[in-house]
Write a structure and sequence with these properties.
Blueprint: H1 3-8, E1 16-19, E2 23-27, E3 35-41, H2 48-53, H3 57-74, E4 82-84, E5 100-104
Antiparallel strand pairs: 1-2, 2-3, 3-5, 4-5
The structure holds guanosine-5'-monophosphate (5GP) and zinc ion (ZN).
Guanosine-5'-monophosphate (5GP) binds near residues 14, 26, 86 and 95.
Length: about 110
């Protein structure tokens, strides 16, 4: 069982922002900024290390990048935004389906790097 696979399959409702054959983008249930959207590959990968080694990982990573761009366009993030990927235990990844947080709509100041 995977929460984001269930969202992709429509078994669990979400607020869709963008979708194509390869990616789904939906609003994070616990937003940390005015815009907080999750971009997820429609094929299950555990995390980005899994995407790096699996067949089709390249394709889905490219589609994620385009999906992020679509989200930024749709949400009017013309002045910039931040993309975050939490990977594995030390990365504090809580949902084990690779996903990318697109965060914006406000001037972000809390930088780790
Ligand atoms: P992670 O910590 O794994 O990088 O991020 C997981 C994200 O998924 C969190 O920001 C959390 O708020 C979001 N999330 C968890 N459960 C749900 C859900 O059922 N629906 C939506 N839309 N987001 C969720
Ligand atoms: Zn999944």
């Amino acid at each position: 069982m995977c929460l984001f696979c269930d969202i992709i399959e429509g078994k669990i409702p979400s607020t869709k922002v963008y979708e194509n054959d390869h990616v789904l983008a939906f609003a994070d249930i616990n937003p940390v900024a005015p815009v907080h959207v999750l971009v997820v590959p429609k094929k299950h990968f555990d995390d980005i290390t899994d995407m790096a080694v699996k067949p089709e990982g390249d394709l889905y990573m490219t589609e994620v990048m385009k999906g992020i761009n679509e989200v930024a366009r749709i949400k009017g993030l013309d002045n910039g935004f931040r993309v975050i990927n939490n990977c594995g235990e030390d990365g504090a990844q809580s949902v084990k389906h690779a996903h990318f947080h697109v965060i914006g709509g406000v001037k972000l100041t809390e930088k780790m790097v």
